[in-house]
Amino acid sequence: MNQKDYIKGRGAQQNSHNKFFEHIYETRDDFLEFCHLEGEEADRNKTQYLPIFPKTIVNKVTSPDVGMQYSMNPYQGCEHGCIYCYARNTHEFWGYSAGLDFERKILIKKDAPRLLEAKLKSKYWKACTIVLSGNTDCYQPAEKQFEITRACLEIFLKYKHPVGIITKNSLILRDLHILKELAKDNLIGVNISVTSLSEKTRRILEPRTATIKKRLETIRVLTENGIPVNAMLAPIIPGINSHEILNLAKTVSDNGAKSFAFTVVRLNGAIGQIFTDWIKKTMPNHADKVLHQIQECHGGTLNDSRFGIRSRGEGKIATQIHDMMRLAKRLYFIESDFPKLNTELHEIQKDGQMRLF
What pLDDT sits at residue 20? Predict the structure, then answer.
């Protein structure tokens, strides 16, 4: 790998073309190149926080194979920089690139708590688990400054409404006191993503995420405090982390996870180009092998958009992954299951709150 061509601390190494733009202008980035040669950090590599003002915050999930009915995202874009992230493509809707822009231009929804409360108070709303981070991580670094996720959790607690969380950041433990209150009424379920047990792999695959040690500690602390945890062993990338399946399952089980889920990587939209560029810079000796194995899981391409198949994959390699996951469940999760969250308390609490107005 040519170090001057590699942007440290980021996943994507380029800004891919936004398919919604007819024209794109490319310039040689002499400033970034100078900074890399001199060993300095480039100001242009800093993260920007940009406020936006959506009219709604709770999203109906129409995809039949995602496993959630409603989601909400306090932030758009994600500084974690996971190179494989399917959410990268959504940044194009805002006029940005799915590449570096996705990691460096974070859109902040400061009105999220107010919009959420209005939704939960609505006479038309029937309680159904809303998942924080259906798209981007609600505990990414921006949360430390803006505390939007914390404010939303306080709203869920106020209205006794079930909430799910997906994250790979140990910052969630900052809000342990709120999570414990939600757990008393079975109103919270947490999904912690653990993609590898190798710090070397984690650093290049998910550059600004919590360390593996911190994630396992997070699973353990949440479990010890009565908060159910499902481990997301996702995505499984052939040739990168597929050999870790049994060790991953055993380790998250040993740390208290009640269940696990997984997907086979697919590189949809602009992500195929971004991932290909990344792997040729970070793993040049393995790049072709990994890309070919991903293609073998999706009928010769890097992506399959068919519901029910897109995240499972097909073919010999995908079959091997599924066989290993079934074995892992038999070995480490045979008597464990993730609980169904409580939807019964919300109407009672909502009626009580409404009487105050």
Answer: 53
Name the pairing type of β-strands 70-72 and 58-60. antiparallel
Check if the beta carbon of residue 164 is closer than 8 Å to that of residue 189: yes
Non-local CB neighbours of 171 within 8 Å, separated by 6+ positions = 139, 143, 144, 210
Query: In 3D, which of 48, 84, 329 has the Cα closest to residue 202?
Result: 84
Q: What is the C-alpha separation between 85 and 7, in angstroms, rounded?
A: 18
Pairing relation of β-strands 130-132 and 58-60? unpaired
CA distances 170 to 81, 186, 191, 340, Å, are 16, 21, 12, 24
Residue 199 burial class via C-beta count within 10 angstroms: exposed 0-12, middle 13-18, buried 19 and up: exposed
| Structural tokens at position 189 | 């379920």
Report residue 229: phi and psi, to 5°.
-125, 130
Helix (H, G, I), strand (E, B) or coil at 44: helix
Q: What is the pLDDT of residue 182?
A: 98
Q: Which of the residue ranges 7-16, 45-54, 222-231 has the most confident prediction, judged by mean pLDDT? A: 222-231
pLDDT tens track for 149-186: 999 999 999 999 999 999 999 999 999 999 999 999 99
Residues of 321-343 as b/e, b for ≥16 C-beta within 10 angstroms? beebbeebeeebbeeeebeebbb
The predicted pLDDT at position 40 comes to: 42
Q: Which helix (H) or strand (E) holds 60?
A: strand 58-60
Residue 221 to residue 255: CA distance in whole angstroms: 9
pLDDT digit string, tens, across residues 206-230: 999 999 999 999 999 999 999 999 9
Q: What is the pLDDT of residue 39?
A: 47
**Which spans in 138-244 are helix H?**
142-146, 148-158, 176-184, 199-205, 212-224
Nearest alpha carbon to residue 11 among 174, 138, 140: 140
